[in-house]
């Protein structure tokens, strides 16, 4: 599962660095199931998403916090396992 | 085109307010001139002698007089102390042409130290006797990342009769500098390190003025910064092409700008999350064919703060070495070694920048660029702005 964090200006100001830190603190068994990447800018803040924005596989998610990111990753990993 | 960058640092003789050594630089249409002079004695009198020598030499070469003729004229006119039979001022002249041809003429200073192609280089020289004084003239070709170090004898005699019986000596200094050069190609780091050690060999009470000048040859002394997407997306291709084909260093400041260029040239931007994120800056990255890809306005703001803290030139500021530098520092280190800075400024604005949800007011890109341009010019760079 590919998890991309936007590190552009507005996402950074709205808390992308806390998302990065929270990913670093993920449990190893969760971390092993995801590939973490960083993107210069999704330009998503000019559309429908409130920064900070992340992308899991091809899906965008906005207004992320460390807690909501962790929950989202767990949900997606479980979803993937059930499939 | 090749160009020489230089950085010098001095110690004053203990108790003196003014250094008796003087370094001056100049240029002709096709060359850079650097002159180091050591005035006899120390303090104001020595300083005046040294300044007069460097001024006369630099001015004559800038006016088109051949280096050989300058040397002949100056040695005839420089007075010699009748008691000690030494010149009232020594000099080393370095002239580096745009094609790398280099001339060094040395009159009574310690010999120049040259590193070429990663090795210590013993250049051939011709010796001329003028007024019973030996003048050594070296001629060779400098290539990219070759270094020259010239110094006054205050460096060579450091430690004399103290920590080092016979003083440091040029050969030992050469060996020490070579050790530094193998670890880093940062001119400021090498020169500062050596002068600091010179000071410590003197027990922090220099018995003589001591100056070290470091010179490095660089290719591509120009840099282009592309920041902000072009106002009209139909011109993206045109500006991306202009940027990629630019002959010099390349910096992208801005995620969206990076995405545009990445898509057009077909190269991925790779963000290095392990890189230094000091000052709360977003991470920076790289792309093939570009020297660095940073975030936009926040990095430019941080870079501007660094420029504002420089007084005379960009070597005034201490910052992390390249390996540990954050995005703004990397920009600083790249631009420091360039003479000409072209900035391509996209006029498209991210409307979210004016959103009250943002934690502080975002400075508009154009204001930041104006501030950057003004500071860069103050620090001796030529700046070319183009809005797109």
Would you kindly provide a written description of the structure presented here, covering whatever features stand out?
The complex is a heterodimer of chains A (83) and B (388). Chain A is α+β, with helices and mostly antiparallel strands and 83 residues long. Chain A is built from 3 helices and 4 strands, in the order βααβββα. The model of chain A has no long low-confidence stretch (mean pLDDT 87). Chain B is α+β, with helices and mostly antiparallel strands. Chain B has helices spanning 43-62, 67-77, 153-156, 170-183, 187-201, 236-244, 255-265, 297-308, 327-336, 365-378; strands spanning 2-11, 21-28, 31-38, 91-97, 101-107, 113-116, 119-121, 125-130, 133-141, 147-151, 210-219, 222-227, 249-253, 270-271, 285-287, 290-294, 340-345, 382-387. In chain B, the strands form 3 sheets. Chain B has a 7-stranded mixed sheet, sandwiched between helices. Chain B has a 6-stranded antiparallel sheet with strand order 2-3-4-5-9-8. Chain B has a 5-stranded antiparallel sheet with strand order 1-11-10-6-7. Chain B is elongated, with a radius of gyration of 24 Å.
Quick description:
By secondary structure, chain A is an alpha+beta fold. Chain A is built from three helices and four strands.
Q: What order do the helices and strands of chain A follow?
A: EHHEEEH
Average of the residue pLDDT scores of chain B: 90
Strand order of the largest sheet of chain B: 14-15-16-13-12-17-18
Low-confidence stretches of chain B: none
How large is the share of residues in beta strands of chain B? 25-35%
CATH architecture of chain A: 3-Layer(aba) Sandwich
Query: What separation lies between the terminal Cα atoms of chain B?
Result: 27 Å
Helix percentage range of chain B: 25-40%
| Alpha-carbon Rg of chain A, integer | 12 Å
The percent range for helix content of chain A is 40-55%
Strand content of chain A: 15-25%
Strand order of the main beta sheet of chain A, please?
2-1-3-4
Pair with the most extensive interface?
A-B, 21 and 28 residues
